[in-house]
Here is the input.
Amino acid sequence: MIPRVVPVDPERPCPEAIDEAVAVLRGGGLAVFPTETFYGLGAAMDREDALGRVFLAKGRPEDKPLLVLVSSIAMATTVAEVPALARELMARHWPGALTLVLRARPEVSPRLTAGTGTIGVRHSAHRVPSALAEKLGEPITAPSANRSGEPPLTTAGEVLASFDGQIDLVLDGGPTAGGLPSTVLDLTVSPPLLRRAGAVVP
Here is the structure.
C-alpha cells in the first residue's frame, strides 16, 4: 500500500487537506502529520483497530501508553479528569510542548492507556494537528512517527521510508523544527513527577 501524500501549509492548512486526513482517521486509517517538533502518527482514539495498527507500525510495546493531542482544554476534559493545577498549566503553556499525564475517564480504551488508567494529553502549537482534532471532534493519537527505538523524524520523506506500506496518508508540511520533545509532567501523583524533560519548563 502506497500512502497518499497531501501537501499542507503549516501556517494555514487548507480545509480540503484536513478533511481528507479526517476521512482516513474516521475510516480506521493512520495519518501522519507535522507538529512543532517532529512528525506524529495519528489514529482516531475510538477505533480499536486503528490503535492496534499504531503499535504494529511503530513496533511499540503494548504496555506503553499512547498520548493524544486535543484542540482545546474542553476537549481534554472529554478523555481525562482535569484538576485545577492541570487547568493552570494548560492556561500557561497550551498550545505548546507540554504533555500532562492525567487520570483517564473510564470510557477511554485500555489499549490507549496500556491499562494504567492514565492518559497523556497535549494541545500542540502546530496548526495542523489542532485542526485535525477539531475537525474530527475528538483527540487523536500522536506518538512520534518513527519506529520505536529510532530517532524521531522531521520530514515526510523520512516517514515514508520508515513506514513502508503501514500508513494511509501523510500530510506533508515540510521539515519540522526538531529539537527537544514535549515535556511530560505526571499530575496523577503528588507531588507532580517530571516523566520527561523537554521543550517546556513547567
